[in-house]
Specification:
The protein is an alpha+beta fold and about 150 residues long. The protein has 4 helices and 4 strands; from the N terminus they run ααβββαβα. α3 links the parallel β3 and β4.
């Protein structure tokens, strides 16, 4: 990603994350605070932490239609990597762009020495879950919630 575009991406990613946190039950205030704290940890100087990369996802016409953020996970295992975020614009989904971005992300991680690649997906995101399963990702944990009203 062009470094000049990074601040706008950072804001977009933070907003997308907060929106997802609200969708799973956090208050808007808590979601925005959590998203702000998360981004500050990952981008303490407003730029990617060492080893992290943010890529634009572009379509065949060269138009940016999303992004992929990939880097080492939080463990001490340097060969364990993580898809921190991937977003394809809603009106561009279903064209294979997310799948292609994921495959290219795997190749990038492998070239950086990764032996595993993990990710988190919100339960409501059934389209993404299907994509990840079709790419060979396996469920390693499940977090559940019941609303008591």
């Amino acid at each position: 990603m062009d470094a000049r575009l990074f601040p706008a991406w950072l804001e977009r990613s933070r907003d997308e994350y907060a929106k997802d946190l609200v969708a799973v039950g956090q208050t808007p205030e808590d979601a925005h605070r959590h998203a702000d704290e998360s981004m500050a940890r990952s981008f303490p100087s407003g730029a990617p932490s060492p080893g992290h990369a943010v890529f634009d996802v572009v379509d065949d016409a060269g138009v940016t239609v999303g992004y992929l953020w990939i880097g080492p996970d939080t463990s001490d295992d340097s060969s364990a990597w993580w898809i921190w975020d991937i977003v394809i614009d809603a009106d561009k989904r279903g064209r294979g762009l997310g799948r292609t971005a994921m495959v290219l992300g795997e190749e990038y991680a492998r070239a950086q020495g990764a032996r595993t690649l993990g990710l988190n997906v919100f339960g409501f995101n059934t389209g993404a879950r299907g994509l990840y399963e079709s790419l060979g990702y396996e469920t390693t944990s499940v977090k559940m919630l019941k609303r008591l009203g």
